[in-house]
Specification:
Blueprint (H helix, E strand, L loop, with lengths): L5 H23 L7 H29 L7
């Protein structure tokens, strides 16, 4: 398995965010029957996607810093 790659975390976060938006949209349009489990999975996907994306952005920024760059 490859080492921690920030770009993969950002892509995974983006996909989870899209899933977290599409699922409630399909529930509102009554394509999917709204259930508590589906609503919870939608919330978990959007929250997890946000956190994964932020972690990927932070790791990407830390990897691009020079050895003596304080910011």
């Amino acid at each position: 398995m490859a080492p921690f790659n920030p770009v993969h975390w950002m892509v995974t976060g983006g996909v989870l965010l899209v899933v977290g938006v599409v699922l409630p949209l399909l529930m509102v349009l009554q394509v999917l029957e709204p259930t508590f489990l589906l609503a919870f999975l939608s919330f978990a996907a959007s929250t997890g996607g946000f956190l994964a994306g932020i972690a990927g952005l932070a790791a990407h920024g830390m990897g691009r810093r020079g050895p003596r760059d304080p910011f």
